Amino acid sequence: MSLFITDECINCDVCEPECPNDAIYQGIEIYEINPKLCTECVGHFDQPQCVEVCPVACIPKDPDNIETREQLLQKYKELVSN
């Protein structure tokens, strides 16, 4: 699964620079995550870095974008090869 940012986001700006895939961006009202770029940090780190730094715990797994660890690793490989 990729991750997503809920309405509890306070726009604190700490998650965006932590994303190794540049999947996080400022949306209209809150930060958002591009599911095509989110690998939950698989291939980079053991834990999703945005989740680690979020002060309000508003970044859960996205039930609309279910992916296995193997799929996330494949996405990571494709992203770093480009």
Automatic annotation (TrEMBL):
This is 4Fe-4S ferredoxin, iron-sulfur binding protein. InterPro entries: 4Fe4S_Fe-S-bd, 4Fe4S_Fe_S_CS, PSI_iron-sulfur_center, YfhL-like. Residues 1-29, 31-64 form the 4Fe-4S ferredoxin-type domain. It comes from the Bacteria. Keywords: 4Fe-4S, Electron transport, Iron, Iron-sulfur, Metal-binding, Transport. Its cofactor is [4Fe-4S] cluster. It comes from Methylophilales bacterium HTCC2181. GO terms for molecular function: 4 iron, 4 sulfur cluster binding; metal ion binding. The keyword Iron applies.
